[in-house]
Amino acid sequence: MASRNYYVVLGVASTESGEGIRTAYRDLAKQLHPDHIGPGDAAPFRELTEAYDVLRDPLRRSQYDESLRAQRRERRISMRRDLVEISPSEEAMFSRFARNFNGVGVPKSERVEELGVEVAISQEEAERGTCVHLEVPIFGRCGACRGRGCTACGGQGITEGERPVTIDVPPMTGRGTTFVMPLTGLGIHNFYLRVRVRVDRAIEPTSGTPSGA
Q: What's the CATH number for 6-71?
C-alpha cells in the first residue's frame, strides 16, 4: 500500500518552512511516540519519522515534491455545463459575461463583482494535489457572418467558446482553501473568480461538483 502524503502526515502545507516542519514533527512525536501510546501501536510514529526524514532534507524534499507533481490528476470543469447553483440566474450571469465582448447594454454603474465557485475534490486528490482547469465562457465575432448576425449565431453576431483558468491545488491538509483569480487576461473586466476548493470524502477521484453564487 502506498504511503500517505508526507505533508498530510505532518499536518503542514506543502509550502511550510523547514523550521515549521521541525516544529510539527516535535509536537506530533510527543503524541505518537510508543512510550506515550504503548509499544503495540508504533506504526503512526514510524510513518511520522519517515515523513520527517524526507522533508527535513532539502534535496530529498525537492525530489519528493517533484514526484507529487507527477502524480497529480487534472480536473476540467466547465462553468457553462457543470455549474449547478447560480444566483441570481444563469441567464443573467452569462449575459454579464457577454457584455465584456459585445459592449451591448453595459450599465454605467456596473462594477467588478465576485463570482464564487466551489469545486469538490476527492480525498486522494487532496493528499496528492491536483490541477483544476476551470473553463470560463468567452465570446467572439461570428466567423460565419462576421458579426452581422445569422442563423449560426442566432442573429447575435457573436459566438461563445471557453478558455481555461488553471488553478494549481497543492496537497491540502485542511477542509478547504480559496483562490482568487482575476479574469482580465481573458478580456473579462466585470468579474473576478473566488474559487473554493473543498475535500469531499464521498466522491471518486475523477468527479467534482462545482457551484457558483
A: 1.10.287.110
